[in-house]
Design goal:
Distance between the termini: 43 Å
Strand content: under 5%
Largest sheet: none
Shape: globular
Structural class: mainly alpha
Radius of gyration: 20 Å
Amino acid sequence: MTSSPRLPLLAGLPLAVGAGLAIPVQGRINGALGTRLNDGIAAAVVSFSTGLVVMILISLLLPRGRAGLARILPAVRSRAFPRIYVLAGGIGALFVFAQSFTVGILGVALFTVATVTGQTVSGLLVDKLGIGPAGRKSVTAIRVIGCLLTIAAVAWAVSPRFAAAGGTPGMADGGAGPDGPALLVPLLLPVAAGFLMSFQQAMNGTATVHYGTPIAATLVNFVAGSVVLWTAYAVKVSVAGPGNPLPAEWWYYLGGPMGCVFIGLGALLVRSLGVLVTGLGMIAGQLLGSLALDVVLPAPGTIVAPATVLGTILTLAAIILATLPWPRGALRR
C-alpha cells in the first residue's frame, strides 16, 4: 500500500469544484449523442468505452499508471479491501441508466434535485460510518444544516426549468408527464443513483489508497461499468435492434474522457476531504458548469433566470457552511 499526502481543504475543495465542472459537459455531450443515435443505452456504452480506452492508454504509458496496474490484482487477492469495491463502476452505470430512462419523464430539474438529495444524504451517512479512506466524520448540526441548504439552493437554482415546463415533470420534453403514484418509481431511481454515488466515491478512495494511484481505481471503474452497459446493450439490441450509426464528429466522443476527470479526482479527494465535502464541492462545480454552458453555449429552451444565479451562489455559501472547521458547540453559541 502506498500512502499519498493529504490535501488541505483550501487546495482540495477547488479541485472538487473543478471535477464537478466536467459533469454538465459530459451530460450535454452524452445527451446529444443519445439523440443522434436515438438510443440512450448506446450513448452510455460509447461514453464508457471511450473512457475505458483513455484509461488503458494512461495506465500503460505513465509510470505511475503502470505501477498502479501492477498493484490491482495483488490488492484484490489479498483482500486489502472488500472485493465488492471493484464493482463500484456499476454504480456509474446505474447513474447513466437513471439519466437515460427518467430525465424524459421527470425533466432535468426534478432529476437534478433527486440525485443531489440522494448524494447529500448518503454523504453524511458514509462519513458517519467511516467507509471512505478519510475515516469517520461526525454528523454535526452545522453539517446537517449545510446539507439541507444545499438541497434547497439546488432546487431554487433549477426552479426556472419547472416554470418553463409549466410545473409538470416531463413537460420539458413535450409530454404531459405523470402525476401522483405514477411518478414515484421514476423519482426513486435518480434518488437511489445519487445515494449510491457517495458509496462509489468511498470505494474508489479506499481502492486508491491500496493501488497507490487514482489511475488504477478509475480504470477498474470503467472496466466494471463497461461490462454492465455492454451487457444491457446486448439485451436491448436482441429485443429492439440497434439504433442509428455512430456519428463522424469527434466531439461526440469526449463524454468518456470527462468521466475520467470526474471519477479520478473524486477517488483522489475523498481521502483528504471526506465523502460529503467532496460530493458537495462537485455539486457546486456541476451548478457552475451548467450555468456557464447555459450562458456560453445555450441549448434550445435554455433559461438563465435570476433564481438560477442566486441559487448557485446560495449553493456555494451552503457548501462553505458545511465544510468549514467549525468548533464544537458553534451552533449553540
